[in-house]
Amino acid sequence: MIGLDTNVLVRYITQDDARQAARAARVMEARCTTESPGWINAVVTCELVWVLEGAYGYSRATVARVLRQILGTAELLVESPQLVWVALRAYEKSGADFADYLIGAGNREAGCEATFTFDKRAAKSDWHELVE
Question: Which H/E stretch holds residue 39?
């Protein structure tokens, strides 16, 4: 198994730099198999969403489709996929950042009754509580 950094995924997905995109494709297509999937750290999912939204202007719907495709690809293995799915569903329905939902869902799974935040959008979730 190999680990995949955010920048490799971004090049592969966006194809914005022909040379790096080709190199990313070579690595992913040759090394990521169903027998030995490419590992995607949960932090990488957060970075990927941030980069696709912020730097590339992808809509939430498009970013959600990208994450769904990654989660559904047998050649890729996402850390804590059940939490990423939960965060993704919340991200699709509400206005907070994907990372906030992943943090809140992960903290709840770890036994936290709430994740305290100053983020008013995140505080609307069942996992967060606004610090006032």
Answer: strand 38-40
